[in-house]
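User: For a benchmark we're assembling, each entry needs the component sequences followed by a predicted structure for the full assembly. Here are entry 17's components. Please fill in the structure.
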Amino acid sequence: MRLDFQTIRQKLSSTFVSVFYLAWTAQAAAGYAFNQVVPDVRQPLALSGGSACPVRAHQLSAASSIAVRWSTTLGTNPVSILTQNQAAAARLTEIEQVISQSLAVWTGVSGTTLLPATVAPPLRVATQNACGSDGLNSICFDQADMAFTPGVLAFTRVITSDALGEQIGSSPAATQLGQILDADIYFDPTDAQVAFATPAALPASPKAYDLQSVLTHELGHFLGFSHSLSGAP
Amino acid sequence: MSFAERRRFLWICFLAGLALLALTAALTSGTTLTRLRFEDLAQQSSAIARLRCLGSEFHWERGELWTETRFEVLETNKGLLAGLVTVRTIGGTFGHLHSHVDGVPVFRAGEEVYLFLWERPGEPYRVLGWAQGTFRIARNADAGTETVTQDSAMAPIFDPRTRTFRRGGIRNLPVGIFQLKLRKALEQKD
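Assistant: Structure for entry 17:
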């Protein structure tokens, strides 16, 4: 019995370690931002570096940072973003704090190259339809999109390039394969059954969705993590 | 090793497994979806049908890249559908650019699916709840059987209220039983 149990324990341990390792490496391979890419050796030496060996991706120089802007246009019918303070200026401040805190979750991960300095402070824009394939990374709380259906609360659309030199809108030209050229986060503003609440407003609105939790999740996609493994476009 | 130690060890294995699942889920899940029960899908959909994918086209519209997938209607379970139906999903490929949204179903020519479709007047069909409204049909050539698996059964859905991921949905259900379940869900509506 003792021997049997030891055998089982060893098998369980080795299985667990194997599964954990495979899962971990699979995830690492799935995300490309702040990960590794293989340079395209068909490109000139100056671009490819002359080697097909994997290199660290998105090693941002000190001068560059990821710009994030958010549309201050908020839905009124229905009210999709609930805040504790109802004054117009205070609402924006409260939402912006949520955005900053959600970004800080990602830049605060120990050991990552995604440092606080690599993400610029969120910038406000008054444009309602600020999200789109324009090369500007945006967060929109009041942009009706043809993709929403019941059951979809928020999503992040990421545009990448599989060739060097590609650009979209005002994005810089891609210098790495798989580089993100545009990432936008859409919150559903049209469903009267769906409301998001800031952490301060959540206790008074228990049926609302936690804005910070959803935003943190979506910002992970925004930064390039968790791309589909299914061969999706 | 005593019984208590054995029990503790098994508990550690169990908890470690759960932690691994949670980690994997957190890293692989996509768009923020809220759970729709099968009955919700049946009731909220505009049409439900078994379809065969014929092919996809991509185009830009309103500043976004969209995929329009054409399907041949094999069986209609709800709504009125013509022989061919077009379903629009966000994302796609245009030249060297790839627009991607996690959770959006992608279809391959020739594959058969049950889709719960949703539409606004004057617009093409969308898939209700994206991964939740997509049920792919697998055919076992040896056994001559067909089974249905919901896309969301393969990818956990994030619940923003509890801040957890939950995996759930129909997996490997024989087509006959799926049809019975669907009929029952549609009857509940009436």
